[in-house]
Amino acid sequence: LAKTTQPISMDSYEGQEVNITCSHNNIATNDYITWYQQFPSQGPRFIIQGYKTKVTNEVASLFIPADRKSSTLSLPRVSLSDTAVYYCLVGLESGTYKYIFGTGTRLKVLA
Amino acid sequence: GAGVSQSPSNKVTEKGKDVELRCDPISGHTALYWYRQSLGQGLEFLIYFQGNSAPDKSGLPSDRFSAERTGGSVSTLTIQRTQQEDSAVYLCASSLGGQRSYGYTFGSGTRLTVV
Hints:
The complex is a heterodimer of chains A (111) and B (115).
Chain A: E1 9-13, E2 18-23, E3 33-38, E4 45-50, E5 53-56, E6 61-64, E7 70-75, E8 84-91, E9 99-101, E10 105-110
Parallel strand pairs in A: 1-10
Antiparallel strand pairs in A: 2-7, 3-4, 3-8, 5-6, 6-7, 8-9, 8-10
Chain B: E1 5-7, E2 10-13, E3 19-24, E4 31-37, E5 43-50, E6 53-56, E7 65-69, E8 75-79, E9 88-95, E10 105-106, E11 110-114
């Protein structure tokens, strides 16, 4: 069954850079890769989206290799408020709208 | 509205009862999605609407689940004869279109507890 996988959890200290990788071997052609952040009792919140190479916005960077079978979310200089669960979202079936969330990575930022 | 609104925010129901969950998407968003998140788990795709039609219902877990969308706006997810395994947070998201380049905006979800 096609799916996406992420590390279950990560710990980091304030001020460090955090990189979270999502593996999506069967990503649909021409599909985008999107990352979301979720706090307890809230819906996921859009962070960043890309198709290939590198994308950067005010909060994160997204690195996508040429084969697009994985992607890495990079959070620079994390703070305590970045403690959350991070999900990647990709389409795994061309021609459908079935977007599959990754398993989620629980990031804990320590003081 | 300014964001995606879901109601009720919490629902406790007895096993065997029917429940309706409502999603009011952002005005102008033609695409609408329902996901389910069980306690401590990831997000499970349920159904997708483009306008009022649902081209992908493959994620609905059983025939007890149904959804509709009217006027290209409000959507209702109905669960008939609820079971304890239906307990979860049901999340709705909307986007400008079905194109994969559009990001979702999620509501805060409805927490359903079946007792």
